[in-house]
Amino acid sequence: MLVGVMAQSRTTAKDQETPRRRGRAWTLLLVLPYVGLCFPRMYVRLTPALWGFPFFYWYQFGWVLLTSAMLGFVYKMQKQSGVS
Fold first, then answer.
1. Model confidence, pTM
2. Quick one: which of 21, 67, 78, 80 could link to 33 by a disulfide (CB 3.0–4.6 Å)?
3. CB–CB of 29/71 below 8 Å?
4. What is the 3-state secondary structure (H, E, C) of 3-41?
5. CA angle 84, 65, 69 (to 5 degrees)
6. Cα separations (Å) of 63 from 9, 49, 51, 55, 71?
């Protein structure tokens, strides 16, 4: 009887762990803005310009928009998987 209870507790713990792992996988997307902006030597330049703005400015502004979209996506995915 004790073995049956232990087997049930193992499956319960495993089932509870799965949504957390899925939620953490989506959270790793939030590392992309950090990596994209961490090395300014890659994007500190004037060309190509977009509507008169140097590359340096519109590259960073693009990351602001992209990061906002990723935050919304990660929030939605975590909410679906039940991760708090």
1. 0.66
2. 67
3. no
4. HHHHHHHHHHHHHHHHHHHHHHHHHHHHHHHHHHHHCHH
5. 30
6. 45, 16, 17, 12, 12
Beta bridge partner(s), residue 18 = none
Per DSSP, 56 falls in state H
- Mean pLDDT score, 58-83: 89
Confidence at residue 6, expressed as pLDDT on a 0 to 100 scale: 52
Write phi, then psi, for 54 (nearest 5 degrees).
Answer: -65, 155
Rounded Cα distance, 80 and 2, in Å:
35
| H or E, element range at 80 | helix 55-81
| Domain coordinates in residue numbering, the chain | 18-81
